[in-house]
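Researcher: Let's run the pair from yesterday's discussion. Sequence first, then tokens, for each.
Model: Starting with the first of the pair.
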Amino acid sequence: MKNKTLSLLAALSLIVGCAPESELPTFSSVQITLDTGDTSRPTVAVSRTGDAIFWAWIRKDDDGWNVYASRVTEDGQDSTEPVRVNHIPGNANPHAQAPAQVEIGPEGYVYVAWTNSTYIPERRFPASDLLFSRSTDGGVTWSEERPVNSDAGGEPSGHTFHNMTTLADGTILISWIDSRERDNLGGSVPMESSASMNEDSPHTHEMQHESNLDASGQPVGSQIRIAASRDAGLTFVETAVADNSACPCCRTTMAVSKSGEVYLAWRHEFENGARDPVIARSDDGGLTFTDPTRVSDDNWVIEACPHAGPGLSVDDNGTVHVSWFTAAASGIGLFTARSNDGALSFEPKELLKADQPVSHTAHAQMAAGVSGIAVEQVSLRNIDVFASTDGVGGRTLVSTIPGKSPSFAGGGGVSAMSFEAQEGIVSVVWRSK
């Protein structure tokens, strides 16, 4: 693996808004190239104490697409040789908006969740199962993959656009967009012109909602489902359905507060066709969720899936931060909003980047009391990384890095962003001084 040290001093960076320079620490950093093969978007996880960093991604081999994982080396300057996670050859799907997700549990176990792909004649999109594997020896070996969704092996359907997190008690939570009920009601999308679809472009969906009604006459579209494991990934139980009318192709995102509340964000499809971000909260470890709160009334009406799920984090003060893309008439670009009452309401949105095409964001805690957000600049093929002091307005631009599709994670004063770059898939690791 190749790496290079970057000189990034937050105190010398461009100030955005009015964040005082003295409020932020300085950061040292290193850039690591993870893989240069035919790969898909990587994700990253940092342990709560900052002493472990793992990456996961999907790579094309002679036997198909496979999941790989590696960890940071002991000296923190490089990554270890990748280890294949899936045992069944080719049992993975390389989708930038449904990448292999990696998490580190409080006991040090490492978890990876990903989707496979099954071609179904006469359907526009393939079916998929959500799969899971764990490593109890620091990523040296991995368990055989097992399905997370309870209907695996039954009627083929979609289980994708997933996210994963862990709680302080070791519980693993996985969220995803599920199409089993929609498909059972005849709402699957026909195969027309699928070969020309770009996975990062908006996808047209003729959902025919009038025919997607359950036995009680209620509409059923794409669902947001959650599954939990309380035995370190040996078994999963589906615990909740948070939504019955989700945008079918905008990934879910979860975040956990220091006091244990679980937040789940996604893009909801409203009755008038608007697709705006919403968020729900669980106070019982993912067993139940509140009714979703609309983050911002953008009223973005679009007969397509923008493939741009929201970014989400909870800072050390308990403030909930959500970021998202919209092309609503009120303004096109990336926005952010925050809630100080447990996501029951949100302050007016703030502009991150104006006049952007479909773009993505990712959040992480970069240091104690310091929140970070990675903002994709698609037109410039760059990612801006901002830092802000919890409870203080304004953001400081820490770095601008060539790349796209960021994943961001942090813990213990260490943060890491993985992304796709011209040279392959890359990660930058920051350490606060």
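Model: Moving on to the second of the pair.
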Amino acid sequence: METIRERIARILREAERPLTAYEIALRLGMDPRAEREIYTHIAHLAKSVRRRSGGREFVVMFPPRCRNCGYVFRDIDRPRRPSRCPSCRSTRIMPPMFMIASRQTHKR
């Protein structure tokens, strides 16, 4: 039996494109409104994936973006969906998206 974090890791590895917390919750069969719980799991998962793979894999977060003016929230320190754009005050925020990527090893 897989833990929820192992299932999230599997979903992110198998995904063809980056996924939002909402999409991850749907694929897990959870209530899609459980985004905060997914963000918490992803924050812990990021550390586990890097540690277990010896630095070969890592969780990539594509930052949230304002749908109104295009402002990109580059300076957030943890996975979350901001409530309002600091530039235009819009609440139309595109949530962060996640995927697991691996480093390519180069042989010379």
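Researcher: Give me one sentence on the second I can quote.
Model: The chain has one domain: 4-102.
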